[in-house]
Design goal:
Elements: E1 7-13, E2 16-24, E3 29-31, E4 34-35, H1 42-53, H2 56-59, E5 62-69, H3 73-91, H4 93-102, H5 105-108
Parallel strand pairs: 3-5
Antiparallel strand pairs: 1-2, 2-5, 3-4
Helix pairs in contact: 1-3, 3-4
């Protein structure tokens, strides 16, 4: 028998895209089938768990299953945190206000992207050095 799904939510940061499914459960957080306790380093885990700590009563009674693709470690952490925050905000209006008071970018996202590399250059802004003598 399939469990009731409360929703599918998306979080993005740079090129990382996180898709989150919230189900009733025991408070497990799985990121690419890896428990949160084993995922990344301490900084990444703390960044991901910020929205969870803003709604502890809800977090302990639901499972969060996240699939992430693309980006680096910190972009992945931001994308997962954003997806969790959006999921919590859609469940209850008080969670939404709590998240907005804590950090607005968890819900609104961060539009910054890496600047593309230009032709005949080594990077986006780097020019070839010149010496005139």
């Amino acid at each position: 028998m399939r469990q009731k799904v409360l929703g599918v939510f998306v979080g993005r940061r740079k090129t990382a895209v996180a898709r989150l499914v919230i189900r009733p459960g025991t408070g497990r957080v799985l990121i690419n089938n890896t428990p949160l306790e084993l995922f990344g380093n301490e900084i990444i885990r703390s960044k991901i768990s910020v929205p969870l700590h803003l709604a502890p009563d809800f977090w302990k009674t639901h499972d969060f299953i996240v699939k992430v693709r693309g980006g680096g470690p910190m972009a992945i952490a931001d994308a997962v945190a954003s997806a969790i925050a959006r999921g919590l905000a859609s469940v209850k209006e008080t969670f939404r206000q709590t998240i907005l008071d804590y950090d607005r970018t968890l819900l609104s996202g961060d539009p910054r992207q890496a600047e593309p590399k230009k032709p005949n250059r080594r990077s986006a802004r780097r020019f070839k050095q010149k010496s005139y003598r």
